[in-house]
């Protein structure tokens, strides 16, 4: 299979997934209790005004007509208006993307910095205390709920120790960088680092445990191969063999997982953003859910689906380019 055909197949699969998400979200809105017109206007609205809004929004149309109208709007990028704030959904989604991306990237950095060295140590010291400690850390990281870990970090490091702030961040990463470039001040960047540390640790813990186990497994497999024995027989330093050759060959599946997990982090930051009041898409999704603002909920979920599918296609394409055997499979 050529690279072009592979990409076309992946794109078609991605479009089908996004269509499925859109359909499910529309179906959930259709079967949810309550009148959308009443939600938009409030409980005190008159019946005449409610009927006017229902007619204006097409809510009196058959369900299949509403579905095709909604699907057509999604195709051209029209996500509609928020029922509560009466703002364009696209604008409300776009303005929260930077904060979510900041948190996802920071969690990925935390995972890489902690997990890869820990996995290397665990693999090179098998059946020792370091290996057992890394294995225990991985099990705890995978099994610990994010919301509980976030609350514990806030309680211990934020409230009791007073090391990190616990409120909403006062400055974003882009604003902090602009301050650094324009005024040469690191103050805003330091504030941003203080506020993002605990959310990044919370969101990155599961990711860290996953990468640690993956690194250890890959390192153990590579250390048993003949080229490692030959390199050591030639007198090469063990550190050089370990990091230049063994870890390098182990990084291919790790990079693949890193790319795929970025999509997961974008969608999985909902709980973490809620716990830390982080102004991202996750927090906005919870606010929309509490207010039953269906257009906003649909827009956020569809955007997360598009981001997840896009990241998967990019990672698959890169991996296929590096390893053409994947296309044949």
Automatic annotation (TrEMBL):
Known PROSITE patterns for this protein? ABC_TM1 (PS50928)
CDD domains this protein is in?
TM_PBP2
Source domain of life: Archaea
Q: Which UniProt keywords apply?
A: Cell membrane, Membrane, Transmembrane, Transmembrane helix, Transport
Query: Which cellular components does GO assign to this protein?
Result: plasma membrane
Residues passing through the membrane, by range: 12-31, 103-124, 136-163, 192-211, 252-276, 296-322
Q: Which GO terms describe its biological process?
A: transmembrane transport
Q: Which InterPro entries match?
A: BPD_transp_1_N, MetI-like, MetI-like_sf
Gene3D superfamilies in alphabetical order? MetI-like (1.10.3720.10)
Which cellular compartments is it found in? Cell membrane
> What is the protein's major site of localization?
membrane
Q: Tell me, what's a Pfam family for it?
A: BPD_transp_1
Record family assignment: Belongs to the binding-protein-dependent transport system permease family.
> PANTHER family, from UniProt?
DIPEPTIDE TRANSPORT SYSTEM PERMEASE PROTEIN DPPB-RELATED (PTHR43163:SF6)
Which protein are we looking at? ABC transporter permease subunit
């Amino acid at each position: 299979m050529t690279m072009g055909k592979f990409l076309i197949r992946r794109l078609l699969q991605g479009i089908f997934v996004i269509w499925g998400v859109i359909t499910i979200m529309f179906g959930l809105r259709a079967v949810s209790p309550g009148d959308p017109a009443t939600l938009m206007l409030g409980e005190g609205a008159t019946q005449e005004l409610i009927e006017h809004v229902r007619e204006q929004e097409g809510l009196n149309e058959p369900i299949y007509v509403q579905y095709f109208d909604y699907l057509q709007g999604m195709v051209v990028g029209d996500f509609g208006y928020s029922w509560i704030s009466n703002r364009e959904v696209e604008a409300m989604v776009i303005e929260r993307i930077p904060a979510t991306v900041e948190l996802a990237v920071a969690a990925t950095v935390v995972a890489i910095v902690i997990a890869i060295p820990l996995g290397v140590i665990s693999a090179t010291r098998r059946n020792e205390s370091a290996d057992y400690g890394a294995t225990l850390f991985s099990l705890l990281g995978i099994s610990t709920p994010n919301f509980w870990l976030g609350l514990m970090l806030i309680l211990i490091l934020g409230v009791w120790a007073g090391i990190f702030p616990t409120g909403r961040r006062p400055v974003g990463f882009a604003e902090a960088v602009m301050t650094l470039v324009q005024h040469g001040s690191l103050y805003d960047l330091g504030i941003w680092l203080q506020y993002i540390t605990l959310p990044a640790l919370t969101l990155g813990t599961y990711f860290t445990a996953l990468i640690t186990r993956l690194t250890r497994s890959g390192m153990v497999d590579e250390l048993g191969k003949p080229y490692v024995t030959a390199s050591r027989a030639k007198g090469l330093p063990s550190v050089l063999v370990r990091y230049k050759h063994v870890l390098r060959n182990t990084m291919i599946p790790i990079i693949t997982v890193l790319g795929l997990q970025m999509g997961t982090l974008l969608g999985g930051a909902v709980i973490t953003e809620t716990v830390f009041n982080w102004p991202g898409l996750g927090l906005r999704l919870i606010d929309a859910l509490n207010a039953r603002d269906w257009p906003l909920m649909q827009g956020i979920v569809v955007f997360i689906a598009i981001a997840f599918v896009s990241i998967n296609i990019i990672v698959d394409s890169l991996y296929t380019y590096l390893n053409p055997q994947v296309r044949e499979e």
